[in-house]
Write a structure and sequence with these properties.
three-stranded antiparallel sheet, 5 helices, about 160 residues, alpha+beta
C-alpha cells in the first residue's frame, strides 16, 4: 500500500516552484493590450498589437539581463515589475505611426424586393506600420463613415459669436 506524505516545502524549493494559475507579466500585459485593441477596434482606428508585444518582450528581456548583471541573479522587485508593466499603449494606436496603403469599398449581397443586389456596407482601410511594416486593416461601416463626415462638416462651419454690450 502506497502512502503519501505531505510536508511544507523549504525556501530553496519554494523559489523553484511556480504557482499554477498565477498571472505573470506577459498575461497582465496581454490583457492590457487586448483591452486597448478592442477600444481601437470600436473606434475604427488602427492599433499595432504586434509591435506592442515585441517591444514589451524586448523590454522584459533587457531588464532581466540587466538584473542578472547588476544584482547577481536576485529576484525582481516590486519597482522593477512596475517599470515593466507601465507601457504606454497609446503610441501603438497613434495615427502618425501608420501609412494608409489603400481604401477598398466593402459590398455585401442583400435581398431587396426579392432581388439579390450588391449593397455598399462600408470600407476597409489598409494601413502599414512605419516602424516594423505590420499590415493592419480597419473596417469602417457606412453609418460611422457618414457620422465622421457630419462631424467634419460641423468643425468646418464657423461658430456663432455671442456679442454682449
Amino acid at each position: 500500500m502506497v502512502e503519501t506524505i505531505f510536508r511544507a516545502p523549504t525556501e530553496n524549493e519554494r523559489k523553484e516552484m511556480k504557482i499554477l494559475g498565477e498571472r505573470d507579466l506577459k498575461a497582465l500585459f496581454r490583457e492590457k493590450s487586448i483591452e486597448k485593441e478592442q477600444d481601437c477596434t470600436m473606434r475604427h482606428k488602427p492599433y499595432c498589437a504586434r509591435c506592442a508585444k515585441l517591444d514589451f518582450e524586448d523590454k522584459v528581456s533587457n531588464t532581466m539581463k540587466e538584473l542578472v548583471r547588476n544584482n547577481s541573479g536576485k529576484a525582481l522587485t516590486k519597482e522593477d515589475i512596475d517599470k515593466l508593466y507601465k507601457v504606454d499603449l497609446n503610441t501603438y494606436a497613434d495615427l502618425d505611426r501608420f501609412k494608409i496603403i489603400r481604401t477598398v469599398p466593402v459590398k455585401a449581397d442583400k435581398l431587396l424586393d426579392g432581388i439579390r443586389t450588391s449593397v455598399l456596407v462600408g470600407k476597409n482601410i489598409d494601413y502599414k506600420c512605419k516602424i516594423r511594416g505590420c499590415n493592419i486593416t480597419v473596417f469602417i461601416p457606412k453609418e460611422d463613415e457618414f457620422l465622421d463626415e457630419v462631424v467634419a462638416d460641423e468643425k468646418k462651419k464657423p461658430k456663432a459669436k455671442i456679442i454682449t454690450k
